[in-house]
Amino acid sequence: MDKSSVLITATALFVLMMAKPGQADITIAVVGPMTGPTAAFGEQMRRGAEAAVRDINKAGGVLGQRIKLEIGDDACDARQAVAVANQMVNKRVALIAGHFCSGSSIPASDVYHEEGLLQISPGSTNPQLTDRGYNTVFRTCGRDDQQGKVAGNYLVAHFKDKKIAIVHDQQAYSKGLADETKKALNAAGVTEILYETLTPGEKDYSALVTKLKTVGTEMVFYGGYPHEAGLIVRQMRDQGMKTVLMGGDALVAQEFWQITGPAGEGTLMTFSPDPRKIPGNAELVARFHKEGYDPEAYTFYTYGTIQTWKQAVEKVASTDVKAVVGALRQHTFDTVLGPIRFDAKGDITESAYVVYKWSNGTYDYVQP
Amino acid sequence: MIDLYRETAIFLQQLVNGITIGATYGLIAIGYTMVYGIIGMINFAHGEIYMIGAFVAVMTYVVMGMLGVQSVPLALLAMLGVGMVVTAAYGWTVERIAYRPLRRSFRLAPLISAIGMSIALQNYVQITQGARVKPLPPVLPGGIHFLEETGFGVKITWLQIFIWTVTVALMIVFTWVVARTALGRQQRACEQDQLMAALVGVNVDRIISLTFVMGAVLAAVAGLIVTLQYGVVDFHIGFLAGVKAFTAAVLGGIGSLPGAMLGGLLIGLIETFWAAYFSGAYKDVATFGILVLVLLFRPTGLLGRPETEKV
Fold first, then answer.
1. For chain B, how many structural domains are there in total?
2. Residue A251: inside a domain, yes or no?
C-alpha cells in the first residue's frame, strides 16, 4: 500500500466516522405495520413516536443526549417481524416501541428477549405477549382477557336474548380476543349461535354473510382488523342485513368508516378511554391537528410509551436495559395516557376498557 | 324437519355470491389463458395489471367527483373507458419492455422477467399511491329481493346484475373476435405456428402486443368490478386474485377461452359453497384439492386440448 492510498483510506475512514450520527445519540425504534392492510395503525404509531421524539429532543433530550428514531416495518407479518427484530438487534436500539399486531409482537419478543433488548408494545393486546415470563417485555395497552370480558359483559347486558355469532380471522390477536369474549359470554350462560373463521386479506365475504343470515344472526362479534370488519359490514348491508357488528380495539381507525361508509353506523367496539379527551393533552392534540392529522387511537399510546421509557431512563440515569427494566417495574410514570404503573408481568396495573360506537364517521363512548 | 323452500333460497343466495366472484376470476383468467395460448408463457404480471385497473377506476371516480359529474351511468362509463385505455397501455408496455426482448432466449427468461415485472409494478403502486387502502363509496346501491315468503329473502344487487351483464357481453365479444375476425384468425395462426404465420404475412409481434392489450382490457374490467363491488383497493390485491385466476385458467384448460371462464366460475362456486356448507377456514384447501383432482384425471384441464407432438 503506497502512501497516497493510505491517505485516501484514512480520509475515507475519517469521513465515515464523521458521517456516523454523533456517537452521543441514543437510538430508539418504533416498529409496526407501516405498509400492508393495517398500515393505518403503523401511521398512528409513527406519528406518535415522531412527536414524542421531537418533543423530548426540544426539551433537551434524555440524559443530555439526543434521541434518534428508527422506523421499522413488519407489515403485520410474523416472518417480517422477526427479520425487523434482528435488524433492530444489530442496531442495538435502546427501546423498541412496538410491534402492533400481536401476531408480530410475540415472535419478535423472542428475538428481543434473547438479545436483551427492551420492548414496550403500545398496541399488542394478546395475553401471551407478557404471559411467558420475559422480563424485558412491557405493554402500555390492555390485555384481551380484560377487553374480551368488557365486550362479553356488554353483549350479555344488551344482547342477551339475541342470536350472537362470533367470527375471527385466525390471527393471534383476533383469535385471542374472540375466544376471550366467547369465554365471558359462555360464563354468563349465553351461547353463540355460530363460531366461524375467515381468511384475512380477501375481498369477498358474501358466503360468510349469507351463512350469518341463514342462522338468523342478530349480533356479530368480530375479532380482527378494520379491513375485513368493514367489508363484512358492507356486505351484510348489501344482503339486506341490519345486524350490528362489535369489534375490538383494532377498529379504532378512520379506515373502518372509509370502507363501510354510512353502513358502519352503530358499529360497536371496545377500546381504552380516549387519550384525546384528557384535558392535559389538549395542546398536543391541537398541534397534531395543525399538521392536518387527527391523533387517533395508538398515536398517543406510542407517544406515551416513549415518554414512559424516557422517565425510566432518567430515574436510573442510564439506558442500560437491566437498570431501565428495574425502574419500569418500580415507579409510576406520568404520561399522556395518564399515570402508568407496571405489574410484575409488564402489563399496566390499571386498564379500563370502554365501549365505543361508530356514528356519522366518528366514534364516541356509548351512552350507558 | 328441513324447510326445503328456505334451503332453496339460501342455496340461491350462495349461487349469486359464487357467480359474482367467479365472474371476476374468469375475466382475469382470460388474460392468462390468451397469453399462454400464443407464446406459451405465464404472464405473472397480469394480476398487477388488474390491480392497476382497479386503482385507475378509483382515480377516475375521484376525478369525476371533482368535475361535478352526478350521473351514475356516465361515471361508470368513464371509469370503464379510462380504465381500459390506461390499463391497456400498461399491458402493452409490459410486453414491450419485459417480454419482447426475451422472445428468442431460453424459456425461463421471460418467466423470471414476468415475476420481476410483477414485483416492480406492485412496489411502484405502493410508493406512488401509498400503502393504505383506497375506499370507494357505494356507487350503485340497492337491488331486487325475492323469495321473501320463505323467511330468507334472496337479494341480488343492481351491481351484481351489472357485473354479470358486463361479463357475459365481454365473453361474447371476445369469443366473436377470436373466432370470426381477421385479428382472431391471425391470433389463432400465431398460436399454431409463429414461424409459419410470419411467412404468410402475419405481423407476429403486433399480434402478440394486441393479445396483451386484450388481456389487460379484461383485467381492467375485472378491476373496476371488484372496486365497485367491494369498495376497497390496495396495492397487493393483484397477488391473491392473480393466483386464483391463474388456477382458474389451469382448471379450465390453459389456452382455452371458454375454459378460463368456466374455471373462474367453478372456483368462485367451490369457494362459496365450501364456505357456506363447511368451514370457511378450509375453503382454499378445498379449491386447490379439487384442482389437483381434476388435473390428475384431465391433465390438460376441463376444456383444454391435449398438445400433439408435431413431427
1. 1
2. yes
Measured between beta carbons, which residues in chain A are less than 8 angstroms from residue B126? 35
In a domain, A197, yes or no: yes
Residue A347, domain member (yes or no): no
Name every residue whose Cβ is closer than 8 Å to that of residue A194 and which is 6 or more positions away in sequence. A165, A166, A167, A211, A212, A215, A217
pLDDT at res. A20 = 47
Per-residue pLDDT tens for A224-242? 888 889 999 988 988 888 8
Average pLDDT over residues A247-253: 86
Chain A residue nearest residue B10, CA to CA: A214
Across chain B, which has 311 residues, the per-10-residue mean pLDDT values are: 78 90 91 87 90 93 86 87 94 92 85 91 87 78 77 84 91 90 90 88 91 92 89 85 90 88 92 84 84 87 69 49
C-alpha distances (whole Å) from A34 to each of A73, A89, A112, A224 are 5, 19, 20, 18
Record the pTM. 0.80
Which candidate, B140, B172, B175, B169, places its Cα nearest to that of B157?
B140
Instruction: Identify whether residues A150 and A245 lie together within a single domain.
Output: yes
Q: Select the residue from A168, A198, A206, A242 to test the B interface by mutation, using most B Cβ atoms within 10 A.
A: A206
Nearest Cα of chain A lies from the Cα of B21 at a distance, in angstroms, of: 7
Residue of chain B nearest A226, judged by CA positions: B133
Tell me whether residue B302 is in a domain: no
What is the count of structural domains for chain A? Answer: 2
Cα–Cα nearest to A181, from A272, A297, A270: A270
Residue B305 lies in a domain: no
Residue A348 forms part of a structural domain: no
Residue span of the structural domain in which B280 resides: 2-297
- Sort A27 into a burial class: Cβ within 10 Å, 0-12 / 13-18 / 19+: middle
Give me the domain span that covers residue A125: 26-142+277-336
ipTM given for this complex: 0.80
**Residue A138 sits in the same domain as residue A152:** no
Residue B77 falls within a domain, yes or no?
Answer: yes
Q: How far from chain centre, in Å, is Cα B273?
A: 21
